[in-house]
Amino acid sequence: MKSLLQRNRTLLSVSQVAILWVAVVLTAFEVAHVTYLCRDHYARLAIAERDGNRLKAEYGKSILELSTWGSMQRIEALAREELSMENPIASEIMIVGRLSSGGL
Predict the structure, then answer these.
(1) Within a domain: 95
(2) Measured between alpha carbons, how far is residue 42 from residues 10, 21, 24, 52, 104 in Å?
(3) Per-run averaged pLDDT (10 residues), the chain, 104 residues
């Protein structure tokens, strides 16, 4: 009777070791897979950060260009060149008073 009980315990421990061994091997494969995924996501993050930095630089250049297009010196130069405008002299300036509140 004791030998049958010992044999069952031995079989039980061998099956437990086999199950644990399979679990360890599967865990090792999963660790390798997760490591691959981590590296892949990190590479994608690096690409996204590089693209983000490029877009920020492009945005900065666009803002600078926009402010250049609207600068006072450029508008004055265009007014002089294309519209033949010039600054008025003192005798050409007329000061207009406010309208009374009674009408237009």
Answers:
(1) no
(2) 47, 32, 27, 15, 69
(3) 65 84 97 98 98 98 89 88 90 84 60
**pTM over cut 0.70:** no
57 lies in a domain? yes
Integer angstrom CA distances of residue 14 from 2, 3, 5, 21, 102: 18, 16, 14, 10, 107
| Rounded CA separation 46/56 (Å) | 15
Residues 53, 59 contacting (CB under 8 angstroms): no
Number of folded domains in the chain?
A: 1
63's tokens: 């803002």
Write down the H helix ranges in the chain: 2-69, 72-83
Domain assignment present for residue 73? The answer is yes
Residue 89 lies in a domain: no
